[in-house]
Write a structure and sequence with these properties.
Blueprint lengths: L8 H11 L3 E3 L10 E8 L2 E5 L2 E2 L5 E2 L1 E3 L6 E11 L8 E8 L2 E4 L22
Antiparallel strand pairs: 1-6, 2-3, 2-7, 4-5, 7-8, 8-9
């Protein structure tokens, strides 16, 4: 089962505007793909099941409410499950929630420490 998730800042912010509360939203699945049964949404190690939402044209998509989460930094992993119980490869996204605002989050890269050197010759006169 091939699955593609495009979860980005624009999608998250547009979900806030379109639905009124912060939601995690995926791209719709094609109507021909009738095997989608549920999503497994794991947020900071806690997994919950979510049934797909349905567009007017019959396509299914993920719509997961993030409004109940406290303010903080979260990492979410999403898997789609088909009617045979097969799971897709996971899609991972990190975000920072502040009130009703969701922003992408990238952990800071630790600075590389440079060991002191004792090979500096100093000022040598000839």
């Amino acid at each position: 089962m091939k699955i593609i998730f495009i979860i980005g800042a624009a999608l998250m912010l547009s979900a806030t505007w379109a639905f009124g509360s912060p939601f995690l939203v995926s791209d719709p699945y094609p109507r021909e793909d009738k095997g989608l049964m549920k999503f497994l949404v794991t947020i900071n190690g806690e997994t919950k099941e979510s049934l797909p939402a349905k567009n007017a044209d019959g396509t299914l998509y993920l719509k997961y409410d993030l409004g109940s989460l406290a303010d903080g930094i979260y990492t979410v992993t999403i898997k789609a499950v088909n009617t045979k119980g097969q799971e897709s490869s996971p899609a991972t996204y990190s975000f920072k929630k502040t009130g009703d605002r969701i922003e992408p989050y990238t952990p800071p890269v630790p600075k590389q420490k440079i060991a002191p050197t004792r090979s500096y010759p100093g000022h040598m006169s000839k």
